[in-house]
Amino acid sequence: MRTFFRIVGKIFAAILGILFVISAILALFFFNLDRRAFSADTYQQVFANDGFYNRLPTVLAEALATSSSGQSGFPLVIHGLTAQNWEAFLRAVLPQEVLKVMGDQALASIFAYVNDQNDTAQLSLAPLKASLSSESGVQAVYTLLNSQPDCTFSQIAEMTLSILQQQQQQIQFCKPSDELKSLVTPVIQFQLQTTATLLPDQITIASVDNNPGQTDPRQRLKVVRLVLRLSPILPLGLLLMITLLAVRSLKSWLIWWGVPFTVTGGVAAMMGFSGAPVARVILQEILVNNMPTYLPVIMLDYASELSAAMVRQLLEPVVRQGLVLTFLGLAMILFAVLHSRRQALITK
Hints:
single chain, two-stranded antiparallel sheet, 2 strands
């Protein structure tokens, strides 16, 4: 009878071992998803590694070129710019280090909001205002004008009259002469400084006040994250049940733990190495279809590219942890074999 119960116990332990492998693999992904997916540091690394900051002026330029209201606060000499002109201007007035500062601050604010640390997510315009008020703002305007053909006499007259009278009309662009620059520069400086003064210090990207009367979606996110954090409890419980059902000696403990560890770690590591394409598609769908509309559109415009990079960031710890589990499991199995041989020699 005792033999029968031992056999039944081992059968149930084997079934629990299979369930352990499945739940442990899922727990590895879920636990790391909670640690990585809701951290601004993850996305800062993604943006830096994939040249995202360097492409921000292109996206902003396209938005400004197609929006007349977006240009109203800038000096008259840069009204009516094409997307290419806007990109040149933004790259001149917002160097890479400034773009990175603005992007990192926005990401930190967004994830402080998502993690329920603040009730609003804001984008600081202080770096932009500082750049507009500096010499780089004036040089940015001249970068645009210098890329045009030399001004004709009629264009010089039109530009001078328009700037001096501040007429609200589109100006034909041309490269001003050195004599005209002495007249244009103070006006550009004044208008850029005025623009910097009128711009707010920060703008709100997301806020709980945007959807009055509706349930805060972050409350549902809290429940999801709690499930992700508690996911390791199930495989640990299964491992404890395996121990109670099947472990009767040091050798059996090493085998019943070593085999599941090896299988779990090996499968997790292989999935981490090869699972990026499938995970990218899934994450892309989540970003495009489920990301709240009040988050920056720029994160949606590059959803396909960013999702692939984000998956790489999320899977890196899964690969490392899988390899650690694999080596630990193999070590336990090897130790069990050596222990068995040692016991056999002692018996002889």
